[in-house]
Input
Amino acid sequence: MRLSTKRTLTATAALLIAGSAASAACEDPIKVGVLHSLSGTMAISETTLKDTMELLITQQNAAGGLLDCEIEAVVVDPASDWPLFAEKARELLTVSEVDVIFGSWTSVSRKSALPVLEELNGLMFYPVQYEGEESSRNVFYTGAAPNQQAIPATDYFLEELGVEKFALLGTDYVYPRTTNNILEQYLLGKGIPKENIFVNYTPFGHSDWSTIVADVVELGADGSQVGVISTINGDANIGFYKELAAAGISADDIPVVAFSVGEEELSGLDTADLVGHLAAWNYFQSAESDANDEWVAAWKEAMGEDRVTNDPMEAHYIGFNMWVNAVTEAGTTDVDAVRAAMYGQEFPNLTGGTAVMLPNHHLAKPVLIGEITSDGQFDIISQTEEVPGDAWTDFLPESAVLVSDWKELECGMYNTETKTCVQLTSNY
Output
């Protein structure tokens, strides 16, 4: 694999090197790999993230590029085929020789790419909420950890809506299963009886929701307030929400809070019957800030008035700009140098605060809860201060003793009881 250090340009050298020498340093463009599904069940969510990266790169090039070089997007389509994410990651790093990768949505796709990233010392920015229980030296997690989405949303159900019985509905893969395992333990700790927690998993692309919705309705047959926590991913959400509407279920009857439904997913639905249902994210398009106004305007100008923004887009927005600043600070695209420069990076988020990159490769970000409105947007009804992302949950005993600190401890899985680094690679 090509050494990125050939584009190293120190501040001192920049003052001394003539323009011709500077252009020689840019013999090749700086290449950014874009690893998102453009076909298959996840295309409904991931295509927008490819478009986001291309817009961010276009904006950065218009501002002068990076290290006096043009940035080039190298786009591949892993086609919602999880093993293909590993193959495409290897192709990006060894054939296209990219300097960084922005990509993946599902946790199974991220975990597919992890061994390749660690083997080749590649760097990936992962922009989607996930289950935690992971910390790789080669990944920066710019989406929400459970304590930045799932736990606050559950608290909202308990404290604000008085939910007594919970239906944990998810797509059958690692993110929903691990998240629901955490939530089940959390709810038990809050005094919710096990029999009041209904857990169900369905395949990607699942379309027949009649039986499951009927089971959820039956939970409340005794008059208890039921709430649905949804980790359903991809186009299966369309069928789920349509079945809710067909069954005449409103948010007043059985509120749903979703962790994988945002503006992009709602743009393909008739939202009239979904008004009042909830989503928990770190960003909504309806956030009021000057930065968000500028970003939404730029997005619509480039993509069309009908195109919407969403949370994973903001995660790429933050991650890409932090990477640009880290590369500028390091004076190189070399992965090890950029990683060191990432710790403590700050960048304004689109909700008015400031995102901070922590030594555990997670961001500190606010938690927002929004109600679906009739136009497919969200009315923000709750927003916290910045919450530091936690790689290892406090609600599973085996994880509660673990911390991630790549800056000082140089370990993503450090046991605070034994004072040892359990392991450095992410094959857990």
In short: The CA atoms of residues 205 and 236 lie 5 Å apart.
